[in-house]
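Reopening this ticket.

The earlier resolution said the output was attached, but the attachment link was broken on my side. Pasting everything inline this time so it's all in one place.
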Amino acid sequence: MSSALHPLAGKPATLAPLLDVGRLLAAYHELRPDPALADQRVSFGTSGHRGSSLAASFNEAHVLAITQAICEQRAQAGVDGPLFIGIDTHALSAPAQDSALEVLAANGVSVLHAAPGQYTPTPALSHAIVCWNRTRTRGLADGIVITPSHNPPADGGFKYNPPSGGPADSSFTARIQQRANELLATGLRGVRRLPLAQARRSANLHVHDFLGAYVADLGALIDFEVIRAGGLRLAVDPLGGAGVQYWPRIAEHWGIALDIVSLEVDPRFAFMSLDWDGCVRMDPSSAPAMQRLLALRDRYDVAFACDTDHDRHGIVARSSGLMPTNHYLATMIDYLFRERGRWRSDAAIGKTVVSSAMIDRVAARLGRRVHETPVGFKWFVEGLADGALGFAGEESAGAAFLRRDGGAWSTDKDGIAPALLAAEISARRGRDPGECYAALCSELGEPWFDRTDARATREQKARLAALTPAQVDLATLGGERIEQVLDRAPGNGAPIGGIKVCAANGWFAARPSGTEDIYKVYAESFRSRDHLQQLIAEARAWVDRVIA
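Inline output:
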């Protein structure tokens, strides 16, 4: 993403003020959100509710209200099997799990949680739900993942995965949000809750071996025999996230040589390098944040990292360094649809409207259909569950794909799977993923992609989200005739919450941010970097004019 780099971007996190964990945890219990303030109410989207206890936007009251709302909504939906729950390594995750357990136990929900001291990656929880429900029609399981993903250390997050195993759809999350805010407004009257010690003694709470089940099943997804035979030098940096206990077990169980950069868990994430804006952010697709692993680039054939809940990936190839997400998505697709011969012959490729058109070119050569959706992994869940999608990915470094036999693996984003696939690709192809992508460019054309942000008021964001093709008064884009204007995704007809304008060798998409007072412009050119900048400039000028 092209934004002005902070002077400390890429520098050690210790050069900036680190999180006061004690103050954060005290605020979780002590601060009471004001339901009259929008920023302190529950905002429960497909990625759940996120915020910080210091800002009174992620506190005990939020978690109690959300959990009660989930208990009620799952009961109304007829979900009566166990609820899997897991946490990442953010400081607020453990106390939030305690709060959730108090409510779940009081509501009589059967809960499966990891052993004390263990963390649970998002894909391990999704995998557990998928496996539990695979042969069942009754007693279906669902889950809660307590994580703000790659957000800064002061943040907390709380999301719900229904029996499909992936992110919940908007109608379900809207009901959770509405009910949770009703509970907040009444001072939590209606929240059923047990003291933590009593909740932990409840007969409904059971320990589940997420780690063992996920690791033992990985051979159904990844060809470890090829990796072992490849003799590659591999490394992984868990970035202090929920996968810290998974990588040693993966290496041991599957007999692969894998150097683990660090197993340190520090809720301040003081071992990180600062991201582009000078903040601590565990984003494996951001070069400033990935300096520790990039420094080891020349020592390994391929190295990889995952974010805090391990649902995003970052790939460092010796040939090219940190791969832009779109490059690796195209590389994975080209490889998987050539090598996974047991997948359905009509299995399609899931991408969002802001992902690279290189994916479309790869798909056309493979003879595969592209299922293009709005931003949000929830749009891919059904296809990954029934095998209609062999692969689904987002330009924000989230992806998932099917088992080798064509069955469902995880219907949520899985950062571990693409990381291990980078090793499989390198071993089988005899060249790293960066070299594989370079070959695609030589055969299909090289694209230049970027995303920029611009300030926008709430009213301007609303106008942008409501734009229709009829309001696009541009005749050309980057010197080429405009061929297509979209306000709905071609794959499912759902509104994209913005506009996408396409020409023969370039496109842009503009959409408002759901969390900040900005709008985002995504653009791609198959001509040159200068042409890309022309596209962005034209897009920004047009958007500013129509939303003014």
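Reporter confirms the inline version is readable. Residues 529-547 form the longest helix (19 residues). The radius of gyration is 23 Å.
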